[in-house]
Amino acid sequence: MTSSAPPAIELRGVVKRFGEITAVNGLDLVVPDGACVGLLGPNGAGKSTTMRLLTAQAIADEGELSVLGYRLPDDSKQARAQCGVVPQLDNLDVTLTVEQNLIVFCHLYRIPKADRRAAVERALDIARLTDRRDAKVDKLSGGMRRRLLIARALVHQPRLVLLDEPTVGLDPQVRQELWALIERLRSEGTSILMSTHYIEEAERLCDTVTIVSHGTAVATGAPSGLVAEHAGELAWEVFGPPTMLSEVETVAHATGRPTRRTGTSVTVLGGDAAPTGFESSTQRRTANLEDVFVLLTGEEIA
């Protein structure tokens, strides 16, 4: 749910270079207060660099950044104190127990001593780790460790949570568990920015998504709105050998209809009918955000 408060995050024309490589190239990004926004893009699109800019682990070469009303990098310490960050890579202290990891972060976030016990219990409850409080981190499953990373980010009840590829490398069952946890935060009005390249994750969890390619935002909007704008309501998937699929693409492009190739099929987007001449090899389906993603970011793997 959004509010009339200032944006939780606002980036305008942000650029970050590493030598000759421009990782973020004039990025505009807004996260309204209380909203869940997905930063969606392929590997190498600049998502993790953007997260590092928001936590002042990297400093922008150009542009303006504000987090919770604080200008970065000058006021990054104040902003960081009100943010929870879930990194892409697991950096838990494996020599400590689940509870001890949370206690350490209570100290780092300067939670008053009288409030620490309640903060730890709340974080354990949110992540469903209460019964594993005394377990050493190196004895936890990958899913439990990811839930602990999220619990650690929430121990001080932040106004904004940054999730950098929160479910990367996890199996579908564990991913579903984490989706439920993120949906709980969203329902409580916590502002969330979540970088991901999982299309289904963005469709399910995010109020809006910003699709990035080569460090630049190429589209922003609600998932359903982006599908309607760029792909239309229907998609026609044609199956066949490569030569046939090339013919389908030629026919579609001649009528101004975009296509995307997927293995042994080619999908034709837009229009109320299948491409002429290939009806017998065609299946109709609903267009989706993955279609939009491929159209806007390309089909080549970085």
Task: Walk me through the structure.
The protein has 302 residues and is an alpha/beta fold. The protein folds into three domains: 9-82 and 159-222, Rossmann fold; 94-147, no CATH class; 233-286, Alpha-Beta Plaits. 35% of the residues lie in helices and 27% in strands. The chain has helices at residues 47-54, 76-81, 98-108, 113-126, 142-154, 172-187, 199-205, 223-230, 242-254, 289-297, and strands at residues 9-18, 21-31, 36-40, 62-67, 70-72, 83-86, 160-164, 191-196, 208-213, 216-221, 234-239, 259-262, 265-269, 282-286. The strands form three sheets. The chain has a six-stranded mixed sheet, sandwiched between helices. A four-stranded antiparallel sheet has the order 2-1-4-5. Strand 9 and strand 10 form a beta hairpin. The radius of gyration is 22 Å and the shape is globular. The chain starts with 8 loop residues before the first strand and ends in a 5-residue tail after the last helix. The mean pLDDT is 93.
Keywords:
302 residues; Rossmann fold; Alpha-Beta Plaits; six-stranded mixed beta sheet; four-stranded antiparallel beta sheet; 10 helices
List the helices and strands and how they pair.
Layout: E1 9-18, E2 21-31, E3 36-40, H1 47-54, E4 62-67, E5 70-72, H2 76-81, E6 83-86, H3 98-108, H4 113-126, H5 142-154, E7 160-164, H6 172-187, E8 191-196, H7 199-205, E9 208-213, E10 216-221, H8 223-230, E11 234-239, H9 242-254, E12 259-262, E13 265-269, E14 282-286, H10 289-297
Parallel strand pairs: 3-8, 3-9, 6-7, 7-8
Antiparallel strand pairs: 1-2, 1-4, 4-5, 9-10, 11-13, 11-14, 12-13
